[in-house]
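hey can u check if this looks right to u? its 129 residues, i copy pasted from the old doc so theres a chance i mangled smth
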Amino acid sequence: MHAEGDGTALTGFSAGAYWKISRFRERAIQVAVPKRRRTQPGFEIVPDRLLLGESLTRDAIPVCTVPRVLFDLSRELNVEQVANVIHAAAFIKRWNERAVTRRTPALERAIALYNSGSGASSWTSAGRD
């Protein structure tokens, strides 16, 4: 993360793997950066300024919070897959709907799907990788 500079943090699939809430494979290490930067080998840059409280440092690694990870994943996954990730986050006590400050239409639908009880079945039937 230090290679990408200040204000950066793991996000998307990489942060999902870090938090152990996503079974989806990361293509490269996804890093949220506050401004456009030259891509470095092995990294995928997500140019977006992190809002206050959207990242933290854990085990000396800057990483996006679970609500921010869900926001990023909702721009790449379908609604059922995002609901599945929400279920995984809830299972490890990392889900708090009130903490979700940024939302996409897909994330809104995934939250509704999770709240209806539909997010759990795909997680348990697919198994955790």
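The CA atoms of residues 81 and 110 lie 8 Å apart.
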